[in-house]
């Protein structure tokens, strides 16, 4: 319990602030060491500037010199300030921050997978190709689609791949006049960005008051110039689109394609096959659905599944059966294929982890994981709905539940203030202010990873904070966090005037002699 009698996060680090024994105020490397000494002895080397092609350094390198223990301890101490999926729950809606099973990591480190190289002779990587072939098979089976491209490196890259396949298909049909893409207002921001990047004009489709897309609104927006619709299902409000089949039919009847954003596939994997709903292309975030590591800049993987109509336009390279019964990598476009969108095939480590997750769960286990994710989200909704305003109460939540800030009205506490106070309680904040269709949005996604005990501790903390907000304890929130290693920042100033380079503070001038 903390000093105010509220439960703290399970398994989190101490809430001790700056300067404590457990989480010390860690200085920068430049402040620990100095630029005049080094942890190793290096010989003096003279290099002719002509060998550097005019790129010789004009100023001192000024790297701080540290011993190995100093450097090691510095980074370990920094790591203790980080919040991670291994230290606590991430309620980030739209992100699906699930546990990464250690079995996956063990398999990814097996020789032949961990050390595979894209330029190895095909005869030496048959096992790796077989793994990619199996992964492709199960991705197509789970989605009821005809082809898959493993090459995209992330979700946004997958979107780009899928929309490029749509563009290539329409060019092959002589439909270059289709230059408009429909995007619901509740879509992920990458959807309109991807369409615009490819030169399409983005036409928004408004959402209904219940948070879903109306098929009649889609029909009204369709025309001979529409190339595709980019729809997320389940959508970003945490709802399954009830008219998705009717929307797909209307889009196809108009001669356009249906791109489905697969970011929320974790809510329906093993339960609903998107191909049965009429989708033509969908990216799958392996980190969100099949437990590959999330964040940190990569390595990522965002495979794209394609319908029969788009299968001929899948990019190279891809794996297929060779004439001798083995497997081969097709490296060059054949017929109307899209071509190459990346240098090599993709991230083998992510493939191994994803297939391990699939095989260890089995079909029934994947479906159970999806149902548990939905159950957990609805449990959080049920426990919090009397203290928080549910944005769209007419439908059951899928994998995430969306609240707005109307429950905070009159308290002087904003969504941002509430999120900062969650840090003091040992929890990573939920997703804030997204989706944009809801004012002051608070989007919570527990995933299937979290136990009832963990969810109860989280909900108890949320309810206690809500009571404090209504009890006029405004300073409790506007000053938060107060027990974190770092206090609240002026985030606007930090974004507009970032300090990207450390510079030593100037010594104070000596007092003038009297």
UniProtKB/TrEMBL annotation:
EC number: 1.4.4.2
GO cellular component: cytosol; glycine cleavage complex
Chemical reaction(s) catalysed: N(6)-[(R)-lipoyl]-L-lysyl-[glycine-cleavage complex H protein] + glycine + H(+) = N(6)-[(R)-S(8)-aminomethyldihydrolipoyl]-L-lysyl-[glycine-cleavage complex H protein] + CO2
UniProt entry keywords in alphabetical sequence: Oxidoreductase, Pyridoxal phosphate
GO biological process: glycine decarboxylation via glycine cleavage system
Alphabetical list of Gene3D superfamilies matching this protein: 6.20.440.10, Aspartate Aminotransferase, domain 1, Type I PLP-dependent aspartate aminotransferase-like (Major domain)
Positions of the UniProt region annotated as Disordered: 473-514
Protein name: glycine dehydrogenase (aminomethyl-transferring)
Domain Aminotransferase class V as annotated: residue spans: 167-295
InterPro entries in UniProt: Aminotrans_V_dom, GDC-P_C, GDC_P, PyrdxlP-dep_Trfase, PyrdxlP-dep_Trfase_major, PyrdxlP-dep_Trfase_small
A Pfam family this chain is assigned to: GcvP2_C
Biased composition (Basic and acidic residues): 487-504
NCBIfam families hit by this protein: PRK04366.1 (NF003346)
Role, per record: The glycine cleavage system catalyzes the degradation of glycine. The P protein binds the alpha-amino group of glycine through its pyridoxal phosphate cofactor; CO(2) is released and the remaining methylamine moiety is then transferred to the lipoamide cofactor of the H protein.
Glycine dehydrogenase C-terminal domain ranges (all copies): 370-470
Superkingdom: Bacteria
One Gene Ontology term of the molecular function aspect: glycine binding
């Amino acid at each position: 319990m903390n000093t105010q009698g509220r439960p703290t996060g399970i398994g989190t680090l101490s809430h001790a602030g700056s300067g404590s024994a457990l989480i010390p105020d860690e200085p920068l490397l430049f402040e620990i060491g100095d630029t005049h000494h080094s942890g190793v002895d290096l010989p003096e080397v003279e290099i002719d500037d002509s060998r550097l092609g005019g790129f010789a350094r004009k100023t001192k390198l000024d790297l701080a010199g540290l011993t190995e223990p100093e450097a090691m301890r510095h980074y370990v101490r920094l790591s203790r300030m980080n919040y991670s999926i291994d230290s606590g729950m991430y309620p980030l809606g739209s992100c699906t921050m699930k546990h990464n099973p250690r079995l996956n990591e063990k398999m990814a480190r097996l020789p032949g997978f961990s050390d595979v190289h894209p330029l190895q002779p095909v005869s030496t990587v048959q096992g790796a190709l077989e793994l990619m072939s199996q992964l492709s098979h199960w991705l197509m089976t789970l989605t009821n689609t005809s082809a898959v491209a493993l090459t995209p490196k992330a979700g946004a890259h997958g979107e780009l791949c899928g929309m490029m396949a749509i563009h290539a298909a329409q060019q092959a049909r002589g439909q270059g006049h289709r230059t408009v893409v429909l995007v619901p207002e509740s879509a992920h921001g990458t959807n309109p960005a991807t369409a615009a990047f490819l030169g399409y004009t983005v036409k928004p489709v408004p959402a209904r008051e219940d948070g879903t897309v109306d098929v009649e609104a889609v029909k009204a927006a369709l025309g001979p110039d529409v190339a595709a619709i980019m729809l997320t299902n389940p959508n970003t409000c945490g709802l399954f689109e009830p008219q998705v089949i009717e929307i797909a039919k209307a889009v196809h009847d108009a001669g356009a394609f249906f791109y489905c954003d697969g970011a929320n596939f974790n809510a329906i994997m093993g339960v609903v096959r998107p191909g049965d709903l009429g989708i033509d292309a969908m990216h799958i975030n392996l980190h969100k659905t099949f437990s590959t590591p999330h964040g940190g800049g990569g390595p990522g993987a965002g495979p794209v599944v394609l319908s029969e109509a788009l299968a001929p336009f899948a990019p190279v390279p891809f794996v297929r059966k060779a004439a001798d019964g083995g497997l081969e990598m097709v490296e060059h476009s054949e017929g109307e294929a899209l071509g190459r969108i990346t240098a090599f095939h993709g991230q083998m480590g992510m493939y191994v982890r994803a297939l391990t997750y699939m095989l260890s769960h089995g079909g029934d286990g994947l479906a159970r994981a999806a149902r548990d994710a939905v159950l957990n989200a609805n449990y959080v909704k049920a426990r919090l709905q009397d203290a928080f305003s549910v944005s769209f109460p007419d439908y059951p939540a899928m994998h995430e539940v969306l609240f707005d800030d109307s429950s905070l009205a009159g308290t002087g506490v904003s969504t941002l203030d509430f999120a900062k106070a969650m840090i003091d309680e040992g929890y990573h904040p939920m997703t804030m202010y997204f989706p944009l269709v809801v004012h002051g949005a608070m989007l919570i996604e527990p995933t299937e990873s979290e136990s009832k005990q963990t969810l109860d501790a989280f909900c108890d903390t949320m309810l206690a904070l809500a009571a404090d907000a209504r009890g006029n304890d405004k300073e409790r929130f506007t000053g938060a966090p107060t027990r974190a290693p770092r206090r609240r920042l002026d985030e606007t100033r930090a974004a507009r005037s970032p300090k990207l380079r450390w510079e030593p503070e100037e010594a104070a001038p000596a007092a003038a002699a009297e």
